[in-house]
Amino acid sequence: MNFVLLIFLPIVAALVVPLLFRKLKAIHTGWFVLLVPIVLFIYYIGFIKTTMDGGHAIAELQWIPSLGISFVSYIDGLSLLFTLLITGIGSLVVLYSIFYLDKNREKLNNFYVYLLIFMSAMLGVVQSDNVISLYLFWELTSISSFLLIGYWNTRDRSRFGALKSMMITVFGGLMLLGGFILLGIMGDTFSIRELIANASTFVGHEFFTLALVLVLLGAFTKSAQFPFHIWLPDAMEAPTPVSAYLHSATMVKAGLYLVARFTPIFAVSEVWIWLVTGIGLLTLFCGSLFAVKQTDLKAILAFSTVSQLGLIMSLLGAGALAYHSDDAIFKFATFAAIFHLINHATFKGSLFMIAGIVDHETGTRDIRKLGGLMSIMPVSFTVAFIGSMSMAGLPPFSGFLSKEMFLQSMLAIRHFELFNFATWGILFPVIAWIASVFTFVYSFYFVFKTFAGRQKSEPLPNKPHEAPSGMLVSPVILASLVVVIFFIPNIIGKWFVKPAVMAIQPGLYSHPSDVKVDVAAWHGFAAPELWMTVSLVGVGFILFLTMARWQKLYDIHPEYMSLNALYDSAMLFSEGGMNRISRFYMTGLIRTYLIYMFAFIAAITAATLFIKEAFVVDMESFTPINLYGILNAIVLVIAVSMVLLAKTRLSAIIALGGVGYSVALFFVIFKAPDLALTQLVIETISVALFLLAFKHLPSLSNHGLTKRNKLGNLIIAAGVGITVTLVALSAHSQKLIPSISQYYKDTVATEAGGGNIVNVILVDYRGFDTLFEIAVLSIAGIAVLAMIRLKLSRKEESTDENK
Amino acid sequence: MEFLMAIVVGILFMAAVYLILSRSLLKVILGTGLLSHGAHLLILTMGGLGGAAPPVLTEGVTDFADPLPQALILTAIVISFGVTAFILVLAYRTYAEHQTDNMNLMKGNDEHD
Q: What is the pLDDT of residue A325?
């Protein structure tokens, strides 16, 4: 089976969703949707065997072969890991949403259509081997994310958040496209595998660093890295299942996927290592610092997601060091990155679901109003506790293992000797440690301020109670995974992490088992990371207890100095500026637009004539001047000037008629009797029509046209006139291809059996032209009739409104 | 002759554009009328004005005028008549509804943005 088609399965399923929603009101639409990710998950599990052996599977669907663009589904360890996350967590999120979204009140048809589109897009991103189709799916994730954040589109905050995420991620997407195209130019292919195979030739290419930076911009905006992280907290306006799915487990990880996928190409570069590691660490630090400030449960989680993404990003950056040194300690980081990515998806997914449950059952997400829910919602508390402790990095939860590995990798950076790391390397473990302290603080803050302590005196909007069991299934599954992974890290490593590591660093390993990393909870008392953990728990605990005293410090940072304020003012400025610019040239007057058009026609045509040296006048080819012709031309010009200068309607019409009749005379002079006859008839009817219509029209007036307006119009008119003259001359003087006229002349008697060539052309050779000409005439006739009969409906409507 | 005709065509186009750019709806319509005349003569001129006889097969005549431009123009004349008739009625309705033929007053407003 061509499994590339499975990428499109969710989108195809989305077509049926509105129908199911309408026809089967009694059943929550989510139950049908749930089938899609489950089926995909089960199908993709079958690939584990292949990737565990370091193999890959590939399927292709041709799209635009001439441009080297196709849909290629390339499944190796890395793609498979993401695919399973997308479908696995997708299943849990859909299950959760069935209980979260009320089937009678919510527009489920929209919701699930968006969600399924997203699922397809995300599968496409992680499986595409072709960068162009990858980009396509990448943008589709931005668009579906926009739709999902703005799902409650009557809320201002939702629309604002949706637009903000769209602006930032689509900007990044565009940069990414630039990076991909540069890569395509350098490697002369759009296939990622082939690019990786040619990677060694890119170094030193003039586009190399530019492509690197552009690809990273795409990855950083998507994965909410500093300073682009500002969209993620605002994206929390989305329904909580969406936040759990897109904004913690999958979409924001697309940037990490991209960095991981392109590591083999860019890892040789110093810029790459510094940017990925540095920005990652900075994001980790900022995210954890600001998470403590938040009072909204989901905002805490949003900043914590930002920070955790930064952590994984910095690990991916540190992993690239393995390309420069054979020392075993540098081979550690990539494993840690992938391992933490899995852990984060599980614990953060469960935490988001709990935040949604708290919101759903109490009516608020404001942590200042919450407290003491432990006894009322024991299951939710347990899940939240497990998730938070894992996030804080405490045993016996999976987060502890990956956090230790993270600290270990950061400590290792000190020993790296290239690229000035020996000087600055000490900063990495220090920042990592501080950020971890804050991570510890916000994890405790999240779970204990909500569930421990006493209930606040102010009653909650809803009377709190435990969530329905269906809603708890998904978070409980995720929380159990968090615990299970702690006890079987090496099985997870063997099945998922090592194949992924091999996919990220294909040149370094020939088989996943070559990745010599053994995860253990205990490394002995001598291990520095143990003491880092112990000290950060100690300091973090003290900070958590004294939080009320120092949380105020955040208020020193003025709001107008923040990145959000920068984004807002940039948006406001560009919106206002664009408005002013467009109002400047979009006057709403047809005249203005006509001026643009005429001026451009004249300028472009005349310029082309001269630039291409197409202006040629061949005096030889001209026919001799004819006396009647001169006389008639004089009559015509006089008539035209009378039209221009006419003071009354009647004289203008008569002069126009004069122009028409002298054109008819030209037809006579130039041996075109049919034309002359037609022109005479038509002109006569036209004049009659004009007279009829002008009776109902006001007298001529130039409506305050100033001298300057007139001069401007005259210049443009003269430009057009001169250009047309030049075109007429050059067109006549150069016959680049032979005319078909000769064919008509030769065959008119034999093929069509006629003598009047013009008539035969019209009714025979070009019969369809004439048919459609008649059609146009009848349409015009119907329109004329309709226009006369038309009632002034708009006027009547407006008077109705006034009543 | 073609040189002269090219200039005549240029003058027709110039007058047409000048009228189309004016503020009075009537003048705009007059302008479109001139524009179609200009276009017809332009086609004729580009094709060449030679030929001793009309393009009708006759014993002993070989030097015809070019039939192709004539066929094109014949179609164009009829179409432009249809268009002129339609514009005239359109102008009539516009005036009946808005009581003005000032193009400056006939523009969309921001309410419909």
A: 76
